[in-house]
């Protein structure tokens, strides 16, 4: 009851003294009651401004609730409240000024204010002021992010005020950056904008480029005469027939600007002729003869002379029209000083971006090289050291990947399953390798070409068996969550953790291989058997056993590589065949029998492929094609690979 | 006194007789000229098999006789198919376009016809321009010449580069495999001008021929049989006589032949290029019967299968290659066609469509291990031709070779 009284008094006061300062936010609202009730985007701005500038502590609350459609109006006296729904038909009503609950009322006595999206955008923009000075730092950050997405000229003064009051250094820096970006776009004077631009020289942020690029948008225009109009901020003058502007496009511009008559296209000509066939001939030319351009031109000229078709521009007229006009690209931005400054800054940014892209490309190439190295390192043992062509090597990689998949089906924890999968994959493929060596390869050591064929037989059988067991669709091998995401150095240079992991794994394998070959007894024996099996066996080494173990080892490493590759690519039965040719080429290019050669080969192929992709990023197929052609040519010059074995180790 | 060519190669007469008999029988059983016992699609399968036998002869020449395990001969086969496919597709589309334009009120200009053909052919890859490599597609004779010239030129350049730098053995195999991989990757691109992974299609329709597929399939069977017969005689002629001896010598010990003063590279290059041309011709006859060619056909796996056929049939003898190609490709068609009854093991049902490749792979391993002479080796039992028994000693410098000169009793 008191409230109604007070409201009535208020109403009286408002009508009596409209100019007096309003003490409560309710009074402000009441002062603009009609516009708020009208709820029209065109007239609402004064009401929002009044609330924003009222200085009342409740002003942000009002705006927030209004925007969220939680502001309701009591029908009987027109007072505004914010509400929370209570049950189906009731509302819990709060007062704005005191933020206290008034009570629960039925919905019947209240009307909801429903601001449309246009009004809500205006309210949100007014709210920015409060959000930017909110005591909660995270809210200030959110507000900045929102502002970065859709700031406008009106935000500039608010932002500048907020910078002065900002307590946190980090947020203040963000605010200053945003202020400069907004100044570039909406600054009042050219000098102000140019000054803001200079801060962004060599800046790699996407936002800086996003702010600068719109300044340099151009419109292609045409003007009569031979000189570009003086009031145009000229970007470039174009010559018809040049690279930028073909003569046809230039003439089309003239036609579109109504500066010249349309030219006759071939299909227009045909339609015109078709429409004017009289007694089997057109303009005196028999229809049957109209199968050459010359005859058609003759017929059309005759029609033109008779006035039945509109005259079309001849070649001479086109030439004259093109010569009589000037074509140019004009900046949409009027001020030449601003566009020049933007050009300078963008050039400096692009230089830096190019450098960073080069670094990014290098990282990509490194990770690709480590994948090739991983796929090839098992082969470096079986093919490089033992000289056995194992076409089923790719299928061992696939087996490793499927082992990882199966382990993941049993152990749901991704981290644990990967840790289990790696030795499991090694065990499975080691066993497969040993079995294959015992059953097939050892009978064929003297016939290397036939090893190739027999292992190919194994390869197609294994591939089909995998297809029969796991189906043709790709199976996921999910990496643990700590391998998700990427390490970003800036907006351009970034590398995913999984690629780093593969790189590290490749290094571990390299170290392992070197240790095994140079420091262990097995390595010594392997090298001895490879160089001279008869001599080695006279020394008490069992060549059969060494060959078996070495082959098993090479296959086991292929299995581990399979787990790593499966994490990065999808696991299918064709996984192996995708890598087999590249792996062999890696080993051959690097030089057979030398792990450093394999490393160099993988690095070369990885960098080469990425380098070619850089020239033509849309087409990885072309990159692979050119890479293989390059390798074929490379083999011409170094038939034994980058690092060729010399002397007795080279065998033949 | 020198024996005549035919007498030294009795297999030629037997082979030609078998081929002729086969062709006559198929013709008499076909829909077009006989009792309609064999379906037209099976006639096509047989015709295609003859083409595969021809490319297998080429493979045998280069691998079995010259010792170059080329894993890229299907690239030449596919290129031959592409060359003939370009003409077939152009000529047929030209007829269709001319037919539809004949109804227009005004006769079309040559440029309009060409544009319409371009739109028809390259619409699927979002283009209508003729790429430069289609320059000769309108001319039958030019394109037929390209069937020989393109695979020949590729083999010549590739072989010259490879043999000159003395790439041998498994390195050469991997290099040829890389070549065919590069070619198939190139063809997969839309920019290659050969319709990317859509390939060329509708090749079974001969432009200007109104006869039904029943007749066309038999004609192609005849053409394939003639080509196979000629290819067999040519290959037999090449490997007989002194040239053949040098080629076999290169296979058995390349270094020794070189030291004897022969230009090993020249011989190898000749054999490599010749077989590429034979493969190209085989492809040109194969793909009109298949009806479609796409880049998957020249993928590395196809060339390895070619080696598999020759190895199973028995390399180093021409009829072995033919037997291997015919047998494996026909049995493969039979198994993958789903006509073979499944085997029920009680706990598992073996569907041959799924398990055929496993069977083939294992067969292949077994043949390599236990019957390196392949099926053709069975004929040695008849002719009593055996490898010399050396009581465990080496066969020769290249331990892998079966030296057939010494093998003759």
How would you portray this structure in words?
The complex is a heterodimer of chains A (652) and B (409). Chain A is of the alpha+beta class and 652 residues long. Chain A folds into four domains: 22-121, no CATH class; 133-216, no CATH class; 218-335, no CATH class; 356-577, no CATH class. Chain A contains 26 helices and twelve strands. Chain A has helices spanning 2-16, 25-31, 33-38, 45-53, 59-67, 117-132, 137-150, 155-165, 169-186, 190-198, 206-212, 247-256, 266-275, 293-306, 315-323, 336-385, 393-410, 414-439, 448-470, 497-519, 521-531, 533-538, 543-568, 575-590, 595-615, 620-637, and strands at 71-74, 80-86, 90-94, 101-106, 110-112, 218-224, 234-238, 281-282, 285-286, 325-331, 486-488, 494-496. Chain A has a five-stranded antiparallel β-sheet. In chain A, strand 8 (281-282) and strand 9 (285-286) form a beta hairpin. Chain A is extended, with a radius of gyration of 39 Å. By secondary structure, chain B is mostly helical. Chain B has one domain. Chain B has a two-stranded antiparallel ribbon with strand order 1-2. In chain B, strands 3-4 form a two-stranded antiparallel sheet. In chain B, helix 3 (40-65) packs across helix 13 (318-336) and helix 4 (73-101) runs antiparallel to helix 6. Residues 396-409 of chain B have low confidence and may be disordered. Classes of the chains: A alpha+beta (652), B mainly alpha (409). At the A-B interface, helix 13, helix 19, helix 24 and helix 26 of A face helix 5, helix 6, helix 7, helix 12 and helix 14 of B.
Main sheet: strands, sense, barrel of chain A: 5 strands, antiparallel
* Beta-strand segment tally of chain B: 4
The computed structural class of chain A is alpha+beta
Question: Any low-confidence stretches of chain B, pLDDT <50, length ≥5?
Answer: 396-409
Note the run of SSEs of chain B as H and E: HHHHHHHEHHHHEHHEEHHH
End-to-end Cα distance of chain B, whole Å, is 20 Å
* Anisotropy-based shape of chain A: extended
> What assembly state would you assign to the polypeptide chains in this entry?
heterodimer
| Tally of alpha and pi helices of chain B | 16
